[in-house]
Design brief:
The chain is of the alpha/beta class. It has 14 helices and 21 strands. It is globular, with a radius of gyration of 22 Å.
């Protein structure tokens, strides 16, 4: 026998964006229920980005979620770039913007958010199968789901689709309404995690063998990447092969700073740009990967999701406090302005730092000329620093 539950906001998806939205709404006295199709353990097993914009850090602090971040996170004033035959140069983000970034793993953020929702008595329904959204354009939208073989119903004022690229939320918008834009890149990133001290800064490398990156999660957890063909599998890359590729692409100066060790996680992620418009349909609002995917080159995925949460939570709070719906009406336009800005930055960095299969000799020389221009031109570095650290919300 099915049951019906009533809340103010249904949040589809129990990842960091859904948890963050629920947390902010609860602080404003707004009820929500999170529907997550998998288990908490599965959500926490996802290995994702860990470079946080200044605005994301400020947001976490503002909502009481930064105690562990400030203890374990690492502040970064900028990022280094190195390419074959040249010494590293540094994009001094703090100098050009007055703001800094932090590295702190998405898994840790998700753990912190789960702890906060548990402490506040937040409702998170796990293993919610066959989620479907109904009456989205009506005044009382609702969601159905199956749990333990029983169909359940939740009614609400609004639905927030925080359920990722493969979730039900975006698919619930009619094809006649939704417009999508996509660019698929002809390579992937092989990512490796190791329990080794990371290099001091975030570093990108452009090398004839392909892109590479040094990042980190905490003082004893490093995250590294190398560009690889999409046909490769993690099993094709032994630890020795990976470390040899990484140190070669980084060059001898950076290689001397890299402490190698056994990998504790190894995976390959394809690169693509994807944007769906609009991000609102009726009482349904798309958030994060449900609406947009960016290549990880600019470290914008989680940061974009949190900016969506910022705009949507502000609009919902204003609606419940004042009855005004102007923020909800402008949500899609406001969020997409930032989405397209981040998509442009990620596209530009991806083209600047990777070697493409169809790249000709003149393409390579022009790429190197662009890198040299960036190295020598402080105005160009300033233009990169602002979107890289993230514009204020």
């Amino acid at each position: 026998m099915s049951t019906t539950t009533r809340t103010q906001v249904i949040i589809v998806g129990g990842g960091p964006s859904g948890l963050m939205l629920s947390h902010i709404l609860a602080q404003a006295g707004i009820e929500s229920i999170i529907l997550e199709r998998t288990s908490r353990q599965h959500v926490l097993s996802r290995i994702r980005a860990g470079v946080l914009e200044a605005g994301t850090v400020q947001m976490l602090r503002q909502h009481g979620l930064a105690q562990r971040l400030d203890t374990e996170g690492s502040v970064h004033n900028g990022t280094g770039i190195v390419w074959a035959g040249h010494e590293q140069f540094f994009i001094d983000v703090k100098k050009h913007t007055g703001r800094t970034m932090m590295t702190y793993g998405q898994t840790a953020i998700t753990e912190d958010l789960y702890a906060a929702r548990d402490a506040a008595g937040g409702v998170i329904i796990e293993a919610a199968a066959d989620v479907a959204l109904h009456d989205i354009t009506g005044s009382r939208p609702w969601a159905s789901y199956r749990q333990d073989g029983v169909m359940q119903r939740i009614e609400a004022d609004f639905i927030a689709g925080c359920d990722g690229f493969h979730g039900v939320s975006r698919r619930s918008i009619p094809e006649t309404v939704l417009q999508t834009f996509e660019k698929v890149y002809p390579f992937g990133w092989l990512g490796v995690m190791s329990r080794t001290p990371p290099v001091p800064e975030i570093i990108y490398a452009n090398h004839p063998d392909g892109f590479a990156m040094c990042s980190q999660r905490n003082p004893m957890l490093s995250r590294y990447y190398v560009q690889c063909p999409l046909s490769d599998t993690p099993e094709d890359w032994s630890d020795d092969r990976f470390w040899n590729a990484l140190t070669t692409r980084m060059g001898p100066v950076i290689a001397d700073q890299i402490e190698t060790g056994p990998s504790i996680e190894k995976s390959i992620a394809p690169l693509r740009s994807f944007v769906a418009e609009p991000m609102r349909w009726g009482q349904l609002f798309l958030v994060g990967d449900a609406a947009h995917i960016v290549p990880p080159t600019g470290a914008k995925g989680l940061n974009l999701a949190f900016s969506d949460v910022f705009y949507l939570s502000r609009a919902l709070i204003d609606f419940y406090r004042t009855g005004k719906g102007s923020g909800l009406d402008s949500y899609s336009e406001t969020a997409l302005r930032r989405v397209w800005s981040a998509t442009r930055l990620s596209w530009w960095l991806t083209n600047l730092l990777h070697r493409f299969p169809e790249q000709t000799a003149i393409d390579q020389r022009l790429q190197e000329a662009e890198l040299d221009f960036l190295r020598r031109n402080e105005d160009a570095q300033r233009a990169l620093a602002r979107p890289y650290v993230g514009e204020p919300f």
